[in-house]
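ERR on first pass: missing label on line 2. Operator R.T. fixed the label and resubmitted. Corrected input:
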Amino acid sequence: MAKSRKFPESIDRPMGFCPGCGHGVVIRLIAECLEELGQDKNVIYGIGVGCSSLLGGGLETDRRHCSHGRAGAVCTGMKRVNPDNIVISYQGDGDAYSIGLAETTAAAYRNENFTTFIVNNVNYGMTGGQMSNTTLPGQVTTTSPRGRNCDVTGYPLKFPELVANQFNAAYAARGCITTPAQINKTKKYIKNALEAQMNKEGYSVVEILSTCPTNWGMSATESKVKLEKDIIQYFPLGEFKMREVK
Amino acid sequence: MGDMIKGNEAIAEAAIRAGARFYAGYPITPSTEIMEYVAYRMEQVGGAFVQAESEIAGVNMVIGAASCGVRSFTASSGPGMSLKQEGMTTMADENLPVVVINMVRYGNGIGTLLTAQCDYLRETRGGGNGDYRCIVLCPDSIQEAVDLVTLAFDLAEKYRMVCLIMSEGALGQMMEPCELPPMQEAKKYSWGFDGKYTNKLIGIFDRDSMKEAEELNDRYNRVKENEQRWEDNYLEDADYVFVSFGLPGRSTIGAVEQLRKEGHKVGFIRPITVWPFPEKAFEKINPNVKGFITIEANATGQMVDDVALTAKKKFERNVPVFCNPHVYGVPAMKTIKEDYYKVTAGEMKEVY
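pass 2 clean. output:
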């Protein structure tokens, strides 16, 4: 008899992401890390609005579905009163970097001791593929039908770099999940971020580049190629702020 | 009689004594002293204080803390209260028992620094998207404000609702002698997040809005039945009944006393809860009452609508309802008496 595959208990419900979407992999990695760190029964999520919302139907943990963009503020309140719980904000690029830019940035700026995971798929997924603050130059979306003109819409925002360069945070990294090797590397980033919080080192953030085949109008395989060929060029992978060895 | 204390500071201390252990907010005149007071006081009692980057962030931090079962509060005024509405509808949706203090200042947009009552309709109807109400308490003195803060936390907990203290800029800035309540032991509600998922949540796709609406109406009806609060006098034989809350309400009481001495049959109702509106107070009124007069510090007359609706409910005939909105400030007794003389001389047209 085949050995049954172990699945983290905290996400053992269907979440309804599109085929080829990265969210499922990301939340699984987070759940696995929490289990491995012995924190899966000690966690509160602040969930963003957008495709992240689908976690609200799938997680078996304490969780608050936050108003659009406000997870950084909600998680601040949670962590200040429950400092021994692991507090995670789980958001997309539209939620964290556009409508929630103030709350996301201010939490990092104050060096709040919680962890932000941002799934960056360079567009608004849930509402049908509009331009976000990470949409690539020239990228066609429903609100940049002739391709993003960065002269009038701004250039894609690099948040982990901002945190690493400007703020006194504990940890900032960007990973992707297109290959098993990248998945393993991203898992290490996620674990580092959570450990930083467990040790009360301060704010930690991991951005994960993800495919969005539905809104990019391509197959899952084509999406992976686009991500590797175009998106990583603009959003380099790696750790931008390493944890300090204590 | 207690020591002299400033309104905003008394309100902040009362919240701490009621067991509040989280505050997040953003400075805005005339409510700022609440935040300044809590900035040092919260630390002394082992609570948490965050100066937020905006009122939106502040109210969302309060959502986070309240979700963990901690008594939490925030305060603001004018445009700051507008920004908080996003959070207040969320708190209503999540049944979070938060206390929000609005030290009302006059004006639309950025507004002014003048004391007023211009937020009545917004606060009594639930100011955010959706269909919800908050319990709204309106003090007419610093002592009453302090007492209502304690009550606000208890009502918020009892009904799992947002409870507002809707006061006025002037009350926050003035000083009066005041007895502060005893210090309660701070407790964490057992329904709050503990990281262990002790209290199961319904999945976002499993909600039943029809059932929730039924529960909501049931709860609001219980609040309407049990929590109406007001002060009244001289209603049984009154020809005219004044209705006024907060500091104008206090002024109105003085005006009524003077008019009585002059031989006029006038009475007053001073709502302490404006939601639920104190409809029960109207049951004592002289059946042959000639009219109601609302005294309000806003531009267009707002509470007059609630008085007219209640009059329609309690009287078979149409009782005229007058209103002279005094825009801002606290109308003097003399001014209120002049309103009365205008009504009786037929110089003021009824609103309803």
